[in-house]
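During the reporting period the student researcher (J.K.) took over the structure-prediction task from the postdoctoral fellow and processed the backlog of single-chain submissions. One of the processed entries is reproduced below for the supervisory committee.
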Amino acid sequence: MKKYSGDWYWYYAINSVLVILILFPIYWTFISSVKKPDELITSEPTFYPHTWTWQYYDRIWNYDTDSIRTNTWGETSEDEENNKNKEKESSKIHKTTGSVTQTIGIDDAFTNSAIVSVGTIIFSIIVSTFAGYGLTFFRIPFKEVLFILLITPILVPAISLIIPIYKLLKGLGLTDSYLGLIFLHTTAMLPIGIFMMRNAFSSIPNSLREVALLEGTSELRIIGNVMLPLAIPGLLTVMVFAMYTSWNDYVLAFLFINSPEKTMLNIALAKIALGGSQFEMKWGSLTAGSMISFIPIIIFYTLLQRYFVRGITGSAVKE
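J.K. obtained the following structure tokens:
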């Protein structure tokens, strides 16, 4: 494509429109999170805040998610601000005596989601790597059929399996636990993970493995020292998908986590947005919470973007 040709202008025009369509919701969420309540809730919305405020971020980070009330603006009142320290002290007493339901701060929910996401990434990498390696280099009867069966669950909606999943976790004693949620997220990731790692290993010449075997190298050392360094793009792509799947989960965390101290970030943000009411939405807190939830995903993807794109394209093009 020649520069300054008609095709060149159409290419950049179409891509510019796509970028605007993708980034505009994020921009709108951000400016809504820094607007004053009277500017946020109005019949004449503006495309930029006339008066900037960070009160929603401060309130989200300092609130206890089980002790939130709302006023007419859908945000906290002055009485709540004055009683915030008392509520925190009260919640500490509740945690000690167990006399009242335990509360949890948004920073604790953030930590809970981070623990589950890191666990999901680790388990997804381990299982996907060994499965992809075996399906690529080992002689397994009906290997292609097995591969298709392993990636078929990606077509099945997870919500349709809630009852058997609950019975399985109940039988294993993994309900209301980090490990149970990690197990579910890892299982949901396996079809994509196995597909990515099999294609990543397929692009590596089998002769490298054969030479290593002739020298007496074990399969584990071949995977760790020979294959994985060459399959880094595919490996990091699995990490991005695992992070995205686990961090953005709401349904499974809502259904299988009951203890307040194990509340996940998205559940905590939903409680803050509702403010304890089924009929009033706290838009300022909701948009600020959404931005807080965006940040880890954006940072993670930005750091691994180059490898992610290489892993995706490498899956489609093989030597």
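The committee noted the following: The longest helix spans residues 283-316.
J.K. will present the remaining backlog at the next meeting.
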